[in-house]
Known about the structure:
Helix content is 11%, strand content 59%. The protein is mainly beta.
Amino acid sequence: MSKKSCHWFVASMLVACFGVALIPSQPAFAQDSKDNFGGIESGKWVLGMRAGFAPLTQQLSSNTSTDVGSLVNFQAMYSLNKWLLVGMMLEWERHSIDQERPSRSLGHQDSVSVLPTLELRPANFGSISPYVNMSLGVNVNGFGENTATRISPSNTLAWRLGWGADYMITKQFALNTEMAYKRNDGHATVNGVRNDDWNASSFGFLFGVKLFF
């Protein structure tokens, strides 16, 4: 997927998410006749534990191929009011990297992302609570080599845009699914030579649980 196509895809998904979230639904808003905007109670803590997978949005670098990586995400959020939450995400991502010509395994890149986050919850639709969130932080990148080739990727600015939904089982427990784009575009030093063509930006698909208290 080209960078231009990726950006169009992210924009269209965000617009679609907002459109679904803002469709009027009388049962969803009937819970509070005084304020018909907002999908969470004020003063709530939300803890999330999710795992999933993450394909890159493009080739990592020339003459390389990359697998669909593993993804683990933890979050802690606090609702300032009925629709806005603030908090933090910690996300770990790993991709195996192969050289294409000649074919050989180079190793794997690990990325730990520290992500201060804002989240918007426009409404509840019965047991379903849709949301969008945005994070800005840092990607701490490292590389584990399988060969004598020494690879050191740079740490990068992390910009993450996510959208998803919680399915409330009880008032304190929910199932969760989320999709997110995360920017991780920098450079790498390969055997002492800087390579500016090193982009590990990805789409993440997460599934897990959340606790509300």
